[in-house]
């Protein structure tokens, strides 16, 4: 018994000690990244008495970019550290201003959940708690740009520069063309193929010749047939070509009366995926499955993968593996249609108390050529600045070793001109992410096409009550 | 007599005092949210992007929607209840049997198992891994290029698509749940057995009872309250099954929604659009189903001859 | 007569040995099954991101220390010891409050006769049947209204009303604590709290230990409610940190090896608490008082 009490006492005293450490008392100070830079690793110190520190910093802040009457805390909502990394390297925070990152995981929709709550409470929030800027992805950007929660950023001095790619502007603009934010990157995507397999199947690995062979979908299928005869797969996932189809859809998922209408492009994709699965042209893996990534090794049997620059630079680790990979045995070409995949936009929140700094950040990552050049050269990004990208593209010494020294920036400069951001709705994220995973049962032959459509309609009606689906 | 009466009157006060903290916290943290949940089920109340729709009173419309059969004549909410019950049953039966066996082994003096501390720690450990991490592991383990399929394909030359077949998906879900929870059940039962008065076992062995007799005449009857507890909480936990099938099937209950559970269905409604109307209606239905099933379980396990009386009876017999 | 007993005894012994062997084989199989996920975790924690993406192996690789360093020094999270401490504070508080008040409530309902006792009991049973996902939404709105977002109070206080733990305590008291003992032990006029703390609680020791373990573990692994209440980085709990790491998988910073290492690290404290508390699930304590 004495032992039990001891253990209890130990547990409770530890809990109490920890309570003090963790500042559970409800005071709730924020660990913040101060203007002085650095990271919030020293959280305990910050939680202690940063109120005093802040005042001092504010007093010192004299001739900064921030207007004197603007807020002292800049709040940014994000779902991971990617942009924060660039921000801390390339943006100098005006003296006296504290940048506060509120990072929530995208898992389980937590990020949008928190962001939405904060945006809806924005009007009543204290000036220093108001969101100043938040990040959004292409699939759900419409949810924010088409509302009053986002701000016309041109009114606070953000440039709608000629050097930006038009689709990045379209994505960040509302129905009336009012620009609500900018993107610091551009994500044109292409077909990434294996040179050795292309030689075997087509007799050439030259990007221009390969492009010629797969320049439309029917040519793409006939190459797939040849590849199959030679013992290869054309693609490694039933969802591989999805983004190409969906980016080029001529109708939106949801019409003006909020009815779900499956666009012809998506129907074509479904037919193609079923056909490819039945004929054995593709593996039955999802886009992110191990079964697919295993195909990126030297002993993989897959002709090509679809993706943007970030895909092969950051997601094709297997191909870049020093032992089992095949770096250098790859090349890129446009493929059947131009498209984009991914990208992060910075949006201005209505009610911001730091408009000067907000505009300054947006301009830094889009029109500041110095910063954009560093993004391209040091961070392997394709920047949202045509001038900078083209300068790198024109560099005769530049080549990507992974692609057998092909100049990928030059190709992306061409591709980026053809990207469209059209027929998008605020519902796209879940529809795009889930149509392939709902239809996989049909592709595998477990259920009929009607049943797959019915399951998809069920899913949509559960997720989006505002959207009318055909009766199932 | 009058002395006694006064005593019980003065003690009644303590009953209220002792249960007060529970009820005060409960009212604020559970009751208010709960009442609003049921209340919401009579309203149209959701979010369309950043726009709030409703709440507009719609009567029983949400319930009507839930019970409208689809084109194939199936009522979804019933299908998902059945899915949930099947997967629960597949996992809960082995869970109870294995846990009961282990609890008896651990507590049997005659067996005198060595290394008990090790085994007791080990069986509980799967429960320490978060369900999401557990499911992640099993997904890679049984994927088409996973080690299980490497073994299968080296023997048969074919890959078995574990996530494409109803039977295998349901079995995997049941198995993960079994593995995560049987240690928990074992500990509960073990603690229950240990709580039984040791003198009863002594008396039984002096009277020459066999171990089977001891098990069925002493251990199991006296363990009944704990078995009732285990059965009912397992049932409630089972009906709320969510993480494992959600992660293993990416939220779709593939194939063809046959591993979709009630809470996955509920989650589809409330996670994106905050559809508290439909969410409230599903919750109310779940509540009724759980209540009815718990009642059945309770009634079938708790006989008129209540355990408390049995304790006294046995003790009486012992005294004789 | 004596030989007959001998033979009988011998038979008994052979039977017992056979039973024991069977039991050991069964338990070893179960133990292997239970340890297998941990084996996988350790293997995966020793592999690099590229190796992990390449698929599966049963042999450990060489990146264990590298992954440990990456996880330990990851500046996108708060320091790991700090995160573990945050989770520990919440879990330990929950487990103490939840078991103490559940036992108190169960004792109150079992021992005292008062009006509405039956209703109170049934009421709690009904509460047990509500899915947490359902009332969570209303709960968050309430927390936000009273201004307790980003504090640990809304994660700790509700554990005082844990219907399932109450039910267990009630069942346990019913089967192990006859009223006579309480009455016998009760010194006339003594404070009832004293009776509960000094007499009843010790008898409930194994039950308390069991539920403390469960409460600690479920609080430790809870992602759902904390994720909705905590958004300040320095207050993150372990599951929130894990979700953030998984969020990083969508960008170039993602590292699967680090994720597995983090899962491994996050399990260690719970294992320790379990070993510490499981010592108290021992035999024969409960009835000690009756015999005397």
Folded structure, characterized:
- The complex is a heterotrimer of chains A (472), B (320) and C (292).
- Chain A has helices spanning 2-22, 43-60, 82-90, 110-120, 141-145, 166-171, 195-202, 207-213, 217-229, 242-247, 264-279, 290-293, 309-315, 317-320, 355-364, 369-379, 386-393, 408-417, 428-443, 449-463; strands at residues 73-78, 98-103, 131-137, 181-183, 188-194, 235-237, 282-285, 304-308, 330-333, 339-340, 344-348.
- Chain A has 472 residues and is of the alpha/beta class.
- In chain A, helix 3 links the parallel strand 1 (73-78) and strand 2.
- Chain A is 43% helix and 11% strand.
- Chain B folds into two domains: 1-37, no CATH class; 67-319, MetI-like fold, CATH 1.10.3720.
- Chain B has a two-stranded antiparallel sheet.
- With 320 residues, chain B is mostly helical.
- Chain B starts with a helix and ends with a helix.
- Residues 1-9 and 305-320 of chain B have low confidence and may be disordered.
- In chain B, helix 3 packs across helix 7 and helix 4 packs across helix 7 (166-194).
- Chain C folds into two domains: 2-69, no CATH class; 74-291, MetI-like (MetI-like fold), CATH 1.10.3720.10.
- Helices cover 73% and strands 0% of the residues of chain C.
- Chain C contains 15 helices and no strands.
- Chain C has helices at residues 2-45, 49-53, 64-73, 80-111, 117-127, 132-145, 153-156, 163-176, 179-185, 192-203, 205-221, 224-229, 238-248, 256-278, 288-291.
- The model of chain C is unreliable at 284-292 (pLDDT under 50).
- The chains are: A alpha/beta (472), B mainly alpha (320), C mainly alpha (292).
- Chains B and C meet through helix 1, helix 3, helix 4, helix 5 and helix 7 of B and helix 1, helix 4, helix 5, helix 6 and helix 8 of C.
